[in-house]
Amino acid sequence: MKKIVILMMILFSSLFGKLENIEASAEFVQKDIKIIDIRTPSEWKETGIVKDSYTIMFFNEKGAYDVDDFLAQLNKVVKKDEQFALICRTGSRTSMIAQFLSKELGYDVINLTSGIMKMIKDGYKTTPYKQSPLFLK
Fold first, then answer.
1. Whole-number Å distance between alpha carbons of 136 and 73
2. Deepest of 73, 82, 83, 107, by most Cβ within 10 A of its Cβ?
């Protein structure tokens, strides 16, 4: 019986992901963690992106979203049990999406609070956005 309870606890805990909230910074983006930029193409063009980040839009310019499409693109970049970070303009969108991905779908997510605008304000130099053929529709 004890083995069954331990096995169930392990199984149950693996269903839930992890969520960390970390301030977006130049120091953080130098770590070996994949960063997913969920902003829109017009935002990527306007400010540039974090070097080597992956651009996978969640909400379009009108606020609409397609969870299945986002997850299909995300799963091309990260494994389900791999920790990764989300960044947006100010941290509002990533806060919601990180909660959803970790609590509902079991991903190990870092929400980069304050977003790329805080990093730019602090002197971070972004990389110009170039559309990746991997994510063309």
1. 10
2. 107
Q: What is the CATH number of the domain that holds 61?
A: 3.40.250.10
**Rounded (5°) CA angle 93-108-97:** 15
pLDDT tier at 116, thresholds 50, 70, 90 = very high
Q: pLDDT tens for residues 60-93?
A: 999 999 999 999 999 999 998 899 999 999 999 9
How many domains is the chain built from?
1
Of residues 11 and 80, the one with the higher pLDDT is: 80
Distance CA 74, CA 107 (A): 11
State which residues form the domain around 27: 16-135
Task: Give the end-to-end CA distance of the chain in Å, rounded to a whole number.
Answer: 52
